[in-house]
Amino acid sequence: MGEQWLLFLVDLLAIFGIYLTLNLSLRLQLGYTGIANFGLVLSFTGGAYVAGWLPVRMGMRLFHVDSSLAKDMIWNNVIINSQINQSLQQNPSMAMSILIVTLLVAAAIGALLGFLSGYPAVRLGGDYLAISLLALGEVLAIIGGNYEPLVGGPLGVQVPDVWAWSLDHRFAVASLANCVMALGVWAYLSAIERSPMGRVLRAVRDNPDAAASLGKDVTKIRLNVLIAGGTICSLAGAMYAFYTSGVAPSALGRFDWTFLPWVMVVFGGSGSNLGVLLGTFAFITLQKLIVSYKYALSFLPFDPVWLQYLLMGLVLLLILNFRPYGLIREKASYATKPNNMSM
Amino acid sequence: MASLIDALTYSALLGLMGFGLTLIRRTTGVWNVAHGEVVTVGSYVTLTLTASLAWNPYLTLPMAFLVCAALSGLVFLIGIEPIRARGASAILLLVVTIAISLVLTAAINIYSDYLQNVFHISAKSFLLTRLDFYLWGQPGILWVSWAALAIATGSYYIFLQYTRTGLALRAMVDQPVLATVMGANARSLSLLSWCLAGGATGLAGCLLPLRFQCNPSIGTTMIATMFAVSIFGGTDKMYGPLLAGIVLGFAQIYGIDLLSSWIGPQVIPYKDLIPMIVLVLTLQFLPQGLSGFSRQRG
């Protein structure tokens, strides 16, 4: 029982770290700058695809895996990965090198996706930008689900286990790494919040016309924030792929990787990092509990996992009705005036 | 020939869906993400009545219209109006529709599980082509989908053009404050537009399983295409989404078929990228959509 709880806690922390990173990216875009990015899944998927494509090719070269297997990387994916994983168990420095290079490439791809998805509609702003981001969020899922050489089509591929060297502590180490990434993003946002850039972002959010009249290039600032947000989302996607040791395009849907983060951020409060943390923790715990105890509800004539969606939607509706700024409100300052309905 | 029929049917249905989405956007300023789930509800009304009561699928059209109109009206009254009345922004209202989309997705999946597990109706994936009739050698869905589009468009046109309520609705769309000052009841008119939009979308959902494989997420997966239709068509004129639905539907099915005959069958799975490409090009070069284009030329 005790070990089961420990596993539950470790997995909870790992997923919490991933979602917190993703949600802080939304906080940067929505909370600071007023960009309603409904396409978080795009960059997240981009990062996961990088982790599904690059490390296995790096591992093959670094560990001299039988090159004849490279003729069909997808068909031979399991064999290649098992050989790479054996080498990674003995070689933590190589594993960390693969991790760092992958994260760097994922960050670059995420930035590119943030730019490409935002560019067409960023000058329109508002709900047009939101809707176009939502629609474009699907692009990579369509490509990845159909183009097998990328990440194996809808069923996906395995990812080399860069945490294999930590042996029995593999999940604990991976969870810790996910939480450290989230802490890093938190520190980055806190630094922005206290800098002149933070005030510029809030000015763009609260009154873009006034910001433009003061010489700020609103379109460029929004695009830069989308690029930064895309970078963070992509890092989360890559770390998620490393944690689960796999990438399956069919598991990278809009509900889990765009709508769920929105529910968490709106619930906690998009105006506060702490609110985002609380919202993320509450929903991840709820989600994990429902998934863990769904067998206790097996007498129901439907899959109990849908109760999670039902609950999320209802909670979001209640929050929007009775506390639209979330659990924690944005701190008022001389420069900003929090507005309940300003989202 | 089969792909031409697919394209014609899909175009008409996409036109109906886009019409509903644009009507809501025009009258209440809301981009309704839950619109996809309304389509799915329309499909499940048809499945339920054909599987349990052995109704002819075309006889379920009025029922699908009524159920989806009522659902859409409820969404407006319970979800949108209380928050809109407090001056919520367009983005916040969009988030409300996401919440509603989550609730409806769960409800649809619970319902389909229930149909399958309790009544043993194949509800997780269904196609009702076997129930269709043939006229002049072509499936009935081809004629009925276009007839539904023509009747819906014609009746909405007559309603908006020649009735007092329609006039008030148009006034509210163009000048909401002035219309309210002149005595138009904004709340009732908004409710009416949500019901009409839901009804039109329900018709599309009802006809969908007669030609295309349906499942609990059929509407959800089509929402990005619906947005592309609405933005490509433009929200200025109600004929915009109809025109855009026809163009995109043809491009997505018949166009990709033609392309595959030139390039190869490997392009077929990417047909869902076409609406995204059209969306990007529209936002870049014609942000007001097709109706904006006609206005500029006029």
Mean of pLDDT of chain A = 89
User: Order of strands across the biggest sheet of chain B?
Assistant: 1-2
Give the distance, in angstroms, between the N- and C-terminal Cα atoms of chain A. 44 Å
Proportion in helices of chain A: 55-70%
Describe this structure in a few short sentences.
The complex is a heterodimer of chains A (343) and B (298). Chain A is 70% helix and 1% strand.
How would you describe this structure to a colleague?
The complex is a heterodimer of chains A (343) and B (298). Chain A is an all-alpha fold and 343 residues long. Chain A has a domain at 17-252. Helices cover 70% and strands 1% of the residues of chain A. Chain A contains 14 helices and two strands; from the N terminus they run αααααααβααααβααα. A two-stranded antiparallel ribbon of chain A has the order 1-2. Chain A is globular. Chain B has a two-stranded antiparallel ribbon with strand order 1-2. Chain B has one domain (2-297): ABC transporter involved in vitamin B12 uptake, BtuC, CATH 1.10.3470. Chain B has twelve helices and two strands; from the N terminus they run ααααββαααααααα. Chain B has 298 residues and is mainly α. Helix content of chain B is 74%, strand content 1%. At the A-B interface, helix 5, helix 6, helix 12 and helix 14 of A face helix 3, helix 4, helix 9 and helix 11 of B.
Question: Which descriptors apply to this entry?
Answer:
heterodimer, A: 343 residues, mainly alpha, 70% helix, globular, B: 298 residues, ABC transporter involved in vitamin B12 uptake, BtuC, two-stranded antiparallel ribbon, 74% helix
Give the topology.
The complex is a heterodimer of chains A (343) and B (298).
Chain A: H1 2-32, H2 40-62, H3 77-90, H4 92-118, H5 126-136, H6 139-146, H7 148-151, E1 157-158, H8 170-194, H9 196-206, H10 208-213, H11 218-244, E2 246-247, H12 254-268, H13 273-292, H14 305-322
Antiparallel strand pairs in A: 1-2
Chain B: H1 2-28, H2 35-52, H3 61-84, H4 90-118, E1 134-135, E2 138-139, H5 140-162, H6 164-174, H7 176-181, H8 186-207, H9 218-233, H10 239-262, H11 273-285, H12 289-297
Antiparallel strand pairs in B: 1-2
Helix pairs in contact in B: 1-5, 1-8, 1-9, 1-10, 2-3, 2-4, 2-8, 2-9, 3-4, 3-8, 5-6, 5-8, 6-8, 9-10, 9-11, 9-12
